[in-house]
Design brief:
By secondary structure, this protein is α/β, with parallel strands linked by helices. The chain has 3 domains: about 120 residues, NAD(P)-binding Rossmann-like Domain (Rossmann fold), CATH 3.40.50.720; about 160 residues, Dihydrodipicolinate Reductase, domain 2 (2-Layer Sandwich), CATH 3.30.360.10; about 90 residues, 2-Layer Sandwich (Alpha-Beta Plaits), CATH 3.30.70. Helix content is about 35%, strand content about 20%. It has 12 helices and 16 strands. The strands form 3 sheets. Strands 6, 7, 8, 9, 10, 11, 12, 13, 14, 15 and 16 form an 11-stranded mixed β-sheet that branches. Helix 3 runs parallel beside helix 8, helix 5 packs across helix 6 and helix 11 packs antiparallel against helix 12. It binds L-homoserine (HSE). L-homoserine binds next to helix 5.
């Protein structure tokens, strides 16, 4: 099989890029319709990102019967249902290994190797940029801004890093994993997502002193009643858990299948080369399919499924309050928590041994597992207390198997 680059769509053909000299200048075009409709083009590789123009290109390629390779997780998470429907109607495949976890072959693993499993859960680190940044903030004491600048310089972040740091890059990937595993359309608005923008050096320090590290964790889990929980948040992970050792731009995804049991996939989740590895793998798969006509996408084996409301998702919590130091303040907070059925598993209030008279401000409560809605109810009430200065900082404490 010989693959040839017939056309490259760019915004600015004059821009100096690595392909200069490697492909003839006439290969470049700024007209996407010309590229898609060119009879020399048999397969379209979409790596422009975004969800509007990318949708037009992918849809036009499918209508023209040209298989598509894409790494665009936002596009598939938001409009994958439409695109895979078109893919079925046109009998033309979309390959998307590069959309989740860079160089780790997790998509094909789910489509092929684990097809005989009911997937009970996924948990993992699926945004390399956030993981890199949290590591640098923890180990080198960098600020959020310094860590982000480094990640961008190294080419880990998306063109618009907002999605990396606000959790949505990971959430889009989580939607793709859940779509493959559970086979029903998933509404992105129903997912509980927060990113690492609000992680402070203070919480990183407290986490460490309590035996945890903070990781941006994606958790997808099917409940006994069939409802599916999908969450992405910076979470406390025990220092001794394997995910605590996932450093830098690496990703790790634990998959729990009913027959395979637990498997862990680990590798480079971002960066040019790992992504290229997945794109080229898909390109070859697409080229094989051009003659054989194979295609796969989300498997629509359910019209509708149920997502677990965020209020019902259950974990332990780390809650840090910023309080006025006066008698009874702790008791008041503890009372409200107790009234809402939130049980404490520990407390922590760092004292300054060199200055025993210094006012304390930061009070930490660790809780037993309870539904998030129950904690929210307590926190709304605590928020109205005069002696509580700011909204509390909350991290989930994940109990991972
Ligand atoms: N920017 C992404 C990450 C890589 O940091 O994981 C592509 O999804």
């Amino acid at each position: 099989m010989k693959l040839e680059v017939a056309r490259i769509l760019v915004r600015d053909p004059a821009k100096n890029r690595a392909t200069v000299g490697a492909v003839p200048a006439e290969v470049f075009t700024t007209d996407w319709e010309q590229l898609v409709n060119d009879p020399k083009v048999d397969i379209v590789v979409e790596l422009i990102g975004g969800t509007n123009r990318a949708f037009d290109i992918v849809a036009a390629a499918l209508r023209a019967g040209k298989p598509v390779v894409t790494g665009n997780k936002a596009l598939l998470a938001e409009r994958g249902v439409e695109l895979f429907e078109l893919s079925r109607q046109t009998n033309t495949p979309i390959h998307f290994e590069a959309a989740v976890a860079g160089g780790i072959p997790i998509i094909r693993t789910l489509q092929d190797s684990f097809i005989g499993n009911r997937i009970l859960s996924f948990s993992g680190i699926i945004n390399g940029t956030s993981n890199y940044m949290l590591g640098r903030m923890t180990d080198a004491g960098l600020t959020f801004e310094e860590a982000l600048a480094e990640a961008q310089e190294l080419g880990y972040a998306e063109a618009d890093p907002t999605l990396d740091v606000n959790g949505w890059d990971a959430a889009h990937k989580a939607i793709l994993l859940a779509s493959l595993a559970y086979g029903f359309p998933i509404d992105p608005a129903a997912i509980h997502v927060s990113g690492i923008e609000k992680v402070t050096p203070l919480d990183i320090k407290f986490a460490k002193s309590l035996g945890y590290v903070i990781k941006l964790l994606a958790v997808i889990r099917e409940q006994d009643n069939g409802a599916v929980e999908i969450r992405v948040q910076p979470s406390f992970v025990s220092e001794s858990h394997i995910l605590a050792s996932v450093h830098g731009v690496f990703n790790a995804i634990a998959v729990h299948g009913d027959t395979a049991g637990e498997s862990m996939f680990y590798g480079r989740g971002a960066g040019q080369n790992p992504t290229a590895s997945s794109v080229v793998g898909d390109l070859v798969e697409a080229a094989r399919g051009v003659t054989e006509g194979r295609h796969r996408g989300f498997l629509p084996y359910k019209e509708q499924g149920v997502l677990l409301p965020v209020e019902e998702t259950t974990t332990g919590y780390y809650v840090r309050f910023d309080v006025v130091d006066k008698p009874g303040v702790l008791a008041q907070i503890a009372t409200v928590l107790a009234e809402h059925g939130v049980s404490l598993s520990g407390t922590h209030s760092p004292a300054d041994s060199t200055n025993p008279d210094a006012a304390f401000r930061d009070v930490i409560f660790l809780t037993h597992r309870c539904p998030y809605g129950q904690l929210q109810g307590a926190l709304e009430e605590i928020d109205r207390m005069e002696d509580v200065n700011k909204q509390p900082v909350v991290f989930r404490i994940e109990t991972l198997s």
